[in-house]
Amino acid sequence: MTGVPTDFKDFDRLTAGLQPSDLIIIAGRPSMGKTALALNIGYNAAKRTGKAVAVFSLEMSKQQLGIRMLGFDASIDATKLRTGFLRDKEWERLTDSANRLTELPIFIDDSSTISVLEMKAKCRRLKKSHDLTLVIVDYLQLIQGRRSAESRQIEISEVSRMLKALAKDLNVPVMALSQLNRKVEDRPNKRPQLADLRESGAIEQDADVIAFIYRDEVYHPDSEESRNIAEIIIAKQRNGPTGYFKLTFRKELTAFGDEIISHELTRQISSLSHDIKRQVALLITRKGDIAFVIVGDYNHISIPDLSKYRIGASRLKGLRCIHTHLNGEPLSEEDITDLVLLGLDLMVCVQVDEKGIPGPIFYANVLPENSDGRGWLVNRVADIGQLNVDFLELVQSLEAEIARTQSARLLEKKDRALLVGVTTGPRWREEGYLDELEELAVSDNIEVVGRIVQFIKKADPRFLIRKGKLGELAIRCLQTGSNLLIFNHELTPAQVKNLTDFTDLKIIDRSQLILDIFARRAVTREGKIQVELAQLKYLLPRLATKNTAMSRLTGGIGGRGPGETKLEINRRRVRERITRLNLELKGIKRQRAGRRRLRDVRRLPVISIVGYTNAGKSTLLNTLTNSHVGAKDRLFETLDPSSRRLRFPRDREVIITDTVGFIRNLPKSLMEAFAATLEELHDADLLLHMADATSGYLEKQIATVEEILACHERVSGETDCDR
Predict the structure, then answer these.
(1) Interacting residues of 196 by C-beta distance below 8 A, sequence separation 6+
(2) Would you tell me how many other CB atoms lie within 10 Å of the CB of residue 474?
(3) Are residues 666 and 632 in the same domain?
(4) Do the beta carbons of residue 486 and residue 443 sit within 8 Å?
(5) Is residue 117 classed as helix, strand or coil in its secondary structure?
(6) Strand ranges (DSSP E) for 516-628?
(7) Residues 45-83: b if buried by 16+ CB within 10 A, e if exposed
(8) pTM more than 0.85
(9) Pick from 518, 539, 558: which residue ends a domain?
(10) CATH number of the domain that residue 164 is part of
(11) Chain CA centroid to CA 674, Å
(12) What is the secondary structure of 546-569 as a DSSP string?
């Protein structure tokens, strides 16, 4: 792209952009959309380059042009804008659009009488102050020429030459709109030609590019094939090829746009698919480039790895999939799953009949968060002639709505998570487990935006849940801005990898969440060692599926044998680190034994407060000993044990210790890593079991603690939680 981009892929492909110092003529009969096309190009140029665009409108007022730009930017019917009858969401879009347009460097001069010399003076000032990139003149025949000119033709030829000189002097493209002669109406074929230009000789000579707009629906309003379609005919280009292409035109919005797929390409893939009896798919970028051509079997296609096409802030991939169906079926569940999981812009299927001719077309797109809870929308048109959708406008408005609903959330800089529960039993039981999982997530500073529970007869070894449910998960994450899925069940390394590959989201299970909380809360050296040890034991079996790149060999020339792989090196280093940490824990164990012997010599009894996490143990210690140990209403607030002296009225002293709370299904790696801490409980003279009487799961929490502890003499007590 060497010139100013128009953001219409075929226009830019033929012209390489609007070239500096070129005079571009946009011509057409009335009501073809000349002003709308010029405004769309000016808007796109200002938005893409950030540089000034000057619009000289000799026919329409700046208010009229402003309403047009508001209409196509906000996707609101211009008639509604003039009457003011808008819905609440339309008012919101209008406000956002007005704010965007205010930031764009588009300068409109609606003087009804102006000469090229006056335009030149204003453009010079604009170029100096705002770096002018494009000049639009609407339209050429209304510009004031030399009054003493012998004829109108000479006057227009002088204006044409002066516009060309303006483009050269300022080194910017000048786009001038022009009317056509009425002779066009007298021909059966009403597509314009160069000879149809008014005062054609002079304009044709001076112009570098001449483009005609032709809309067949103006002459055949009942034709479905030409509805909302505009042909752009490049009839002259001094330094490039001529040709034509089609754009969609939404007259209610005065907006032009690129097609989802051209008629010709649709016919080509339909004919090919029919001939080889296989589905054919194209993955097309937003620039119109074909990124992939895929040939499947009779019923399916397999989309390749799209990891390099990263989902950005907009949350969509920038690719649309157009493929054929040979059995006359609409979009399948597999198609919708690919749309959602891969984050595609659109999923389109073309039904191919028995003669290889394209028939009805189905297309689907994801939806932003809505009150109906719908995740996607499927549309159907009878044939390619009715597929008159402005693809870029559709995708950009969709992304803008998603971004608008997520903008407030992004400022919080918190992980946003969906909780996933899978059960073979009653749903209410799993909901209770998810309540606890939500408390764990909140304790780890994660914002929980929703939960999904699936009943299964048998767990899927690849994903734990059924693949079809992944589509619902991906849609919910898209709508709510979630970047994290937390499973209430421990996942195998292969399941984590498969889920990550399919959803492109961060996946953790309950065990990893607990480990993360412990890592966040560990303060003492002893606590940090125990947490690191637990994390490494959790990580070791998962290294096997971390990354295929980790399997590269590191043996070199002269080495004996192939050498170690990167994966083997990483696993060896983890084992070595585990060994060192175990040695350090043995040292901690000896220190604890020394402290216990000292207590035995001084004959100080030890009372250990035990119980479920967040049951009020730290609060009880603070109350009894007038201490200030941290006590908050969140799970695992206490990680490092705290010991205090407690004096009884009969001159008796004891040591009372606040310990780490327990939880259902405590990860095995944590149980092993905290063996040194649990040993303290075995040596305690009395275990004081605290339980939160306000919990709806009181009996289950007590049973969980009883299962973990050996049978010690203990006193049980119930408290209201410290909230």
Answers:
(1) 27, 180, 181, 183, 184
(2) 25
(3) yes
(4) no
(5) helix
(6) 606-611
(7) bbbeeebbbbbbbbebeeeebebbbbbbbbbbbbeebee
(8) no
(9) 518
(10) 3.40.50.300
(11) 41
(12) S-GGGG-B---TT-SSS--BHHHH
Structurally, the chain folds into a number of domains equal to 4
SS (H, E, C) 74-97: HCCCHHHHHHCCCCHHHHHHHHHH
Of 233-247, 553-567, 568-582, 598-612, where does mean pLDDT reach its minimum?
553-567
Angle at 548 between CA 546 and CA 553, to 5 degrees: 115
Residue 226 in domain:
no
From 157-171, 575-589, 596-610, the region with the lowest mean pLDDT:
596-610
Clarify whether residues 64 and 173 are in a common domain: yes
User: Do 474 and 345 share a domain, yes or no?
Assistant: no
Give the integer Cα–Cα distance in Å for 11 and 424. Answer: 58
Percentage with pLDDT > 70 across the chain? 87
- pLDDT (tens digit, 9 = 90+) per residue, 59-88? 999 999 999 898 888 878 888 888 888 888
Domain that includes residue 454, residue range: 412-518
Are 213 and 28 contacting, i.e. CB atoms less than 8 angstroms apart? yes
Question: What phi and psi, each to the nearest 5 degrees, are found at residue 550?
Answer: -75, -5
Q: Which of 103-107, 292-296, 384-388, 526-530 has the weakest average pLDDT?
A: 384-388
For the annotated catalytic residues, the residue numbers are 59
**Cβ–Cβ < 8 Å for 22, 100:** no
Same domain, 625 and 708: yes
> Kind of pairing, strands 484-487 and 642-648?
unpaired
| Pair 521, 503: CB distance under 8 Å | no
Scanning 312-352, the segments in alpha helix (DSSP H) are 333-342
In which element (H, E) is residue 494 found? helix 493-503
Longest dimension (CA), the chain: 124
Angle between the N-to-C axes of helices 88-103 and 391-410, in degrees from 0 to 180, rounded to the nearest 10: 90
Preceding amide of 433 cis, omega within 30: no
Same domain assignment for residues 319 and 342: yes
Same domain, 492 and 361: no
124 & 136 share domain: yes
| Residue after which a domain boundary falls, among 503, 518, 533 | 518
